[in-house]
Amino acid sequence: MNLARLDLNLVVALRALLEERNVTRAGQRVGLSQPAMSAALARLRRHFDDDLLARVGGHYELTALGQVLLDRTATAYDLLERLFTSQAHFDPAEEQREFKLVASDYAVAVFGAELARVVHEEAPGIRLRFAQTPTSVVDDTASLLSATDGLLMPRGVISDFPATDLYEDRWVFLVADDHPSVEDRLTRQDLARLPWVTYQRTYDAPAVRQLGMLGVEPRVEVSVDSFQLLPLLVAGTRRIALIQARLARLLTSLAAVRVLEPPYEAVSLQEALWWHPVHTHDAAHIWLRETAARVGRRMADVPGLQGPP
Prior knowledge:
The protein is of the alpha/beta class. Helices cover 40% and strands 21% of the residues.
């Protein structure tokens, strides 16, 4: 396919048509007349050799190919938009723009809050928007990164994309203050027999994969999409939870829980900022990455992360 012969305006029209499933509404959305949008649909049908929108009764439905293109078109649109808003120069004190970062609630609490404080002081016109990490991040990383400005994610979960290291953390366990069968330390037998509270897809985390290598299969009783809920779901129960030490320091005062060291040498956690290669040389994204790395270096100076929180 010769990309030079393609009209990129058709990407805008295609997205509107697939999402609106109505020629008139799609035209209104992108500022085209009904005849102009009908002409765009005709061109798209010729290109794909498919109707894309098929009339069913008094409305249109997507064809099989149209359904496939629906998500791909949104991703392509976002990538093109970010590509053509790239900047050669960026003055954080003067610019007005928003950066979207995908992150877990752990990363926002431990790192994002401090990043937001620094940005507030140094770049008052810059807005940060944090979006929850989807469970599909491992399955379709490219699409996720193409539609955002960065992803906060530990190393060992995804790969093959550029990243800059931010800070280190370590894993600890939470148990209830009044746990009936755990005293001052956990054993590997405890990890196998006690019920667990886990975060989303536990098997993606290197720390949990390490347990499998040790012959421990967590018996998951509760799964939740928020690290910050783990202490509340452990307190007053027989459950245990694996949590980051930096977050445990922030949360242990919120619930009647204790922090215990793993009964094995747990792998460390290296948090990183990942991005799509299209952003690598963009001045605004370079500033964002350098600022994030600077905040991460400051976090390395926090004392006491080698011992219990």
